[in-house]
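Lab notebook page, bench 4
Experiment: in silico fold of construct C2
Operator: M.H.
Input chain length: 155 residues
Purpose: comparison with the prior construct
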Amino acid sequence: MIKVGNKVICTNKGSTVYNYVGIVETVFESHCNVNYGSTRGYMLCSDLKLYYGDEKTSDGGPSDYYDFPSSWNTLNDYIEYKSDKQWGVDSFHWGNVTKALCRWGDKSGTSLPYDAKKVIYSACRVLARLSGKEKLRKYLQELLDDPQFKGDPHA
């Protein structure tokens, strides 16, 4: 049984975190939230197993999580899979981010700033749900106050 604090490895080949070792942060009835260091993932409990140190982990080289199943034909196949297996309640927003990135500059009647705002807006909605609006507001202000966002970068 997977518990909070367990060291686990994801065994789902369709997941973006296949063969990554992480620590379980939250356990729900059918899924867990796992911290993989620089990322966090929503994984079905059945896709995780306890990690004892002998499993192969990513070495930064080719990994099979970059390969899409042959049954996928469109971006919608990817979005639907991720929505069902990983994104959960955030599916709408991550779907919008994915679409904005994939059509970057190609959608008639929009601009690159439009697509960038779409990504930021949707990511902010997820962050607000996860951390609360006040923490989101504080984070955004910290970004704006950071020296890299002061002045015109193209001046």
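Observations: The chain has four helices and five strands. Residues 112-131 form the longest helix (20 residues).
Next step: discuss at group meeting.
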